[in-house]
Design goal:
The protein is mainly alpha-helical. It contains seven helices and two strands, in the order αββαααααα. A two-stranded antiparallel ribbon has the order 1-2. α2 runs antiparallel to α3 and α3 runs antiparallel to α4. The radius of gyration is 19 Å and the shape is elongated. It starts with a helix and ends in a 5-residue tail after the last helix. The mean pLDDT is 89.
Amino acid sequence: MKNKHGVMHNLVIGMSGTALLMISDWLMGACGKGNVANGVVQSNWAKAAAWRYEASFLIAAVAVFLLYTGMKEAIRQIRLTRSRKDVWTIRMAQVFEIGGIATTVATLFLHAKGCILPILYKKLYSTSLMGADMLAVVDEVFFYISIPFYVLSVIMIVCTSVPFIHQIIKQRLRVPKWYILLNPMVFWVVGWVLRLFGAYLITDFTACMTSFGLMMMLWGILQHVARIPER
């Protein structure tokens, strides 16, 4: 492989971006002890410090630039795993490109949603509105962005994870088979299962599971590159 060091460097930059996204996710999603969910509204939003959401959005804004470098390189490396003898490796590379672009483009939008709704609720909480009215306002605001939110979330998670898993199973990526576990979809499912236990420390930890899965996927691609002989 030509410029192997540069390729690995770009992937590491992308991983540093996902590390910042984990911090941003935790600041945005961790609600603390005694939190009660009412639809999209979390009861502890009212007493959470506003700086957390401001910092979360700023960190995500920086992280996106680093993530772009890593995802661009990851897309290029997945393209190189295509085989003319297997059309599905070609299709999976195309799907991964869609997922990678969506991840880069939509990350800031999703974090904006995650930070603006708590701030809106905090502002409404300080008014004379009744609790039901506040919930209705926040839910209605979320309703207007819910379709792109869910669609982009699915594309980001599924369209990066499934091709990554497929290329490993087809041995197009030079990593052990157990690396199929290192992707955003698996870690999202693990986070969902852990949240069933209800303990707030576990629930708060799962706020950054998807970003951690993205980091692990980039690490898996990095390991694939490391195993390619230099020319």
